[in-house]
Design a protein that fits this description.
Elements: H1 24-46, E1 51-55, E2 61-65, H2 71-78, H3 80-85, E3 86-91, E4 94-96, E5 106-112, H4 116-138, E6 141-144, E7 147-148, E8 151-152, E9 155-157, H5 168-180
Parallel strand pairs: 1-5
Antiparallel strand pairs: 1-2, 3-4, 3-5, 6-9, 7-8
Helix pairs in contact: 4-5
Amino acid sequence: MSQTECLVPANPQWQEFSAGKQPEFHKHRLEVWERCKAKREAEQQALPEDPIKITLPDGNVKEGVKGKTSPYDIALGISKGLAENSVVANVNGKPWDMKRPLVEDCELELCKFDHPAGRETFWHSSAHVLGLTLENKYGAHLCVGPAIEDGFYYDVYCGGNTISPNDNDTIKAGFDEVVKGKHPFERLE
């Protein structure tokens, strides 16, 4: 994405929301995302398939391919349970998405929910699910939605509308719908 391209167009700042109809900026945001994702995938495909060494915390070294092998692949090679229960990886001490390809020799730690990095990533991802739920149900414009120590939240703008505790059941049902949709969590670097 270029510095001048924005995922949410500046005008209009607020559009009335009709239940069951996506705001116009959703279409624009998805078009920008798909264009940027295709460009990034083409760049990844062009990388030479050089071998890399992935060192695990126990000193075991796994072989991988630059730009192809992901932490998920390494975890799956150890056990399916480890792959399915790892939330995030630490690569050379930095958080790394499980399906993001590795690009160099590295030290790899796989983090489950019981690891601080695993919890933070889980709560962060949960905030994104809540954000999508609030966009879908209320036409909300997302403001800030961080993970916090023991959970997550999202501040949103809904024009003149208010979301109250009376909406909790609707929000929970919408959250469950988003989760059941199995939307992939993808990041562009």
